[in-house]
């Protein structure tokens, strides 16, 4: 494999950052050659998250899976122990049943390694190739064109309740073990709900805004698909609901944050208030801000 010229950092919309670990280097503290393919493989998992695709569920919906047909790398310089690397990836070509990714491993702006990965979309039972589904093709092309990977909507329970219920059941009831009777309440009917979908039409995040008192609303029931957390979906919903609170004249928005999510909400401008308390057997803290 040889490129006409090495890739440059700015040509990649997607970049995955990692730090070289001790187990990946030789006695001269230089990365073993095979690990560069592992770096690309690690990055491709985050590439799907950047597309808001929970990989396993998405492939199940598409009735197929992706298999590596060919992988190659070209070396320009070595990565060393404790280097901070950025792995860029882009989908360069989609054929009938295949898709080709190009990649680059960078230390700052310096290209260390370039790579090419060829995947085939296939039936997981027979492992025979199948045409790349139009929805997946469109998702990849839209992302590489700089378009959003998700769409969000605000609406009433009558519009969005069925979708929100499925997501909240998955996150709160099945994953966190919250009893069903504690998850559903009468506030859903009068709440403003927000839902985010990916380009395959899969709901991936939801939250609600309820009236707490005059001029005060509360954000709650924030649920994001487990494998897509940390990709900005929750942040987008919070901003949407803060805008909604602002438009209806609220002077304060509160929420009950699980203590494990406190730093996330601090990053969105919320401040803690009062003492820790327990809801559904989970430690929480009240947080607030003026929208």
Physical arrangement of strands within the biggest beta sheet: 6-7-8-9-10-12-11
The domain tally reads 2
Strand content: 35-45%
* CATH architecture classification name of the largest domain: 3-Layer(aba) Sandwich
The helix fraction, in percent, is: 25-40%
| Overall geometric form | globular
Which key phrases capture this entry?
291 residues, alpha+beta, Aminopeptidase, 8 helices, 37% strand, globular
Description:
The protein has two domains: 9-144, Roll (Thiol Ester Dehydrase, Chain A); 150-289, Aminopeptidase, CATH 3.40.630. It has eight helices and twelve strands. The protein has helices at 35-50, 55-62, 134-144, 157-175, 180-183, 187-190, 233-247, 262-266; strands at 14-19, 65-75, 84-94, 98-107, 110-122, 150-155, 192-198, 203-213, 216-224, 252-258, 271-279, 282-289. Strand 9 (216-224), helix 7 and strand 10 (252-258) form a beta-alpha-beta unit.
């Amino acid at each position: 494999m040889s490129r006409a010229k090495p890739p440059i950092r700015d040509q990649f919309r997607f970049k995955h950052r990692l730090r070289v670990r001790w187990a990946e280097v030789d006695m001269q503290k230089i990365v073993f050659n095979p690990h560069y393919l592992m770096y690309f493989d690690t990055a491709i998992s985050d590439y799907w998250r950047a597309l808001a695709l929970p990989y396993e569920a998405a492939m199940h919906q598409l009735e197929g899976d992706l298999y590596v047909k060919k992988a190659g790398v070209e070396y320009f310089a070595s990565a060393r122990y404790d280097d901070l690397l950025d792995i860029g990836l882009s989908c360069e070509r989609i054929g009938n049943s295949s898709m080709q990714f190009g990649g680059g491993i960078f230390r700052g702006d310096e290209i260390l390694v370039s790579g090419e990965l060829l995947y085939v979309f296939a039936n997981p039972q027979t492992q025979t190739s199948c045409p790349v589904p139009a929805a997946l093709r469109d998702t990849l092309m839209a992302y590489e064109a700089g378009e959003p990977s998700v769409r969000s909507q605000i609406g009433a329970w009558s519009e969005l309740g069925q979708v929100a219920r499925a997501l909240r059941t998955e996150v709160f009831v099945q994953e966190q073990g919250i009893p069903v009777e504690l998850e559903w309440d009468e506030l859903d009917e009068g709440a403003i709900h927000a839902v985010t979908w990916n380009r395959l039409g899969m709901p991936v995040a939801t939250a609600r805004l309820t009236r707490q008192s005059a001029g005060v609303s509360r954000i709650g029931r924030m649920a994001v698909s487990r494998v897509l957390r940390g990709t900005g979906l929750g942040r987008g919903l919070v901003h949407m609901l803060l805008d909604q609170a602002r438009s209806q004249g609220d002077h304060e928005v509160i929420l009950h944050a699980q203590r494990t999510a406190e730093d996330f909400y601090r990053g969105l401008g919320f401040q803690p208030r009062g003492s820790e308390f327990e809801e559904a057997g989970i430690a929480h803290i009240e947080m607030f801000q003026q929208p």
